[in-house]
């Protein structure tokens, strides 16, 4: 089946710094990828839709200047958390759509901001 | 808008007990329905899915039937194992769109 990877799997950063998370579709091309956020013991909430070659579409309440998304190729989308603060600590999960509209999830990235 | 409601947990069972986790949905159109499982510290794994009414998804002893008349997609397993302990998410999605997830139900199985 299709495989989606994320890097890093976990990261600790200091408050005020920026962190980049990569989401790659390893064996298929994905025009569309999604970024979700999961708080401890809670559900996944969609943050944004990432479209290759165009600007991301953000969900209401998600700060686009804080969570920068770049989908520069058909196999890579990146999420950069800028000027991170402790409240940004969370589990970030991406997913990628195949041509057949099947959605495959990455393993997630745990971000801890100290 | 579309939404998913699943039963609150945690659900605590003994090994070999019968499992039901209820899931109901509200949707326009004809979404696909999914159950995902998340083991501690890991990402989501697709457990099963159904794409149209009356379809039954099944995998690893788990089953769920897409019931349009009751807008439900309840997850069942006849005999749970300790290794089934995890968080289970019901989700719905239209083709090509992001998924909408329920809040998740934690299952704890003891031997």
Oligomer: heterodimer
Summed up, the helix count of chain A is 0
Q: Regions of chain B with pLDDT < 50 over 5+ consecutive residues?
A: none
What fraction of residues of chain B sit in β-strands?
A: over 45%
The Rg value of chain B, from CA coordinates, equals: 13 Å
Number of DSSP-assigned strands of chain B: 12
Total strands of chain A: the figure is 11
Overall residue-averaged pLDDT value of chain A: 93
Describe, in plain words, how this protein is organized in 3D.
- The complex is a heterodimer of chains A (114) and B (111).
- With 114 residues, chain A is mostly beta strands.
- Chain A is built from no helices and 11 strands.
- Chain A has strands spanning 4-7, 10-13, 19-25, 32-38, 44-51, 57-58, 67-73, 76-81, 90-97, 103-105, 109-113.
- Chain A is globular, with a radius of gyration of 13 Å.
- The mean pLDDT of chain A is 93.
- Chain B has 111 residues and is an all-beta fold.
- Chain B has no helices and 12 strands.
- Chain B has strands at residues 3-6, 11-14, 19-21, 23-26, 32-38, 44-50, 56-59, 62-65, 75-77, 86-93, 100-101, 105-110.
- In chain B, the strands form 3 sheets. In chain B, strands 2, 5, 6, 10, 11 and 12 form a 6-stranded mixed beta sheet that branches. In chain B, strands 3-9-8-7 form a 4-stranded antiparallel beta sheet, with no helix packed on it.
- In chain B, a hairpin with a 6-residue loop joins strand 10 (86-93) and strand 11.
- The N and C termini of chain B lie far apart (41 Å).
- The mean pLDDT of chain B is 94.
- The chains are: A mainly beta (114), B mainly beta (111).
- The interface between A and B is medium-sized, with 19 and 18 residues.
């Amino acid at each position: 089946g299709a495989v989606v990877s994320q890097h890093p799997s976990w990261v600790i950063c200091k408050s005020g710094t920026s962190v980049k998370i990569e989401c790659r579709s390893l064996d298929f091309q994905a025009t569309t990828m999604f970024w979700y956020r999961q708080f401890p013991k809670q559900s996944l909430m969609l943050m944004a839709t990432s479209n290759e070659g165009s600007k991301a579409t953000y969900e209401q309440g998600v700060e686009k200047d804080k969570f920068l998304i770049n989908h520069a190729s058909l196999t890579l989308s990146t999420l950069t958390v800028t000027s991170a603060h402790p409240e940004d600590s969370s589990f970030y999960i991406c997913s990628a759509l195949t041509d057949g509209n099947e959605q495959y999830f990455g393993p997630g990235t745990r971000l801890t901001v100290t | 808008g579309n939404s998913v409601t699943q039963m609150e947990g945690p659900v605590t069972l003994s090994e070999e007990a019968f499992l039901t986790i209820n899931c109901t949905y509200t949707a326009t159109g004809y979404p696909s329905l999914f159950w995902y499982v998340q083991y501690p510290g890991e990402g989501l794994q697709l457990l099963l899915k159904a794409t149209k009414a009356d379809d039954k998804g099944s995998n690893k002893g788990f089953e769920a039937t897409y019931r349009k008349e009751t807008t439900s997609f309840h997850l069942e397993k006849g005999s749970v194992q300790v290794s089934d302990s995890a968080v289970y998410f019901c989700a719905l999605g239209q083709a090509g769109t992001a998924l909408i997830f329920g809040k998740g139900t934690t299952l704890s199985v003891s031997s």
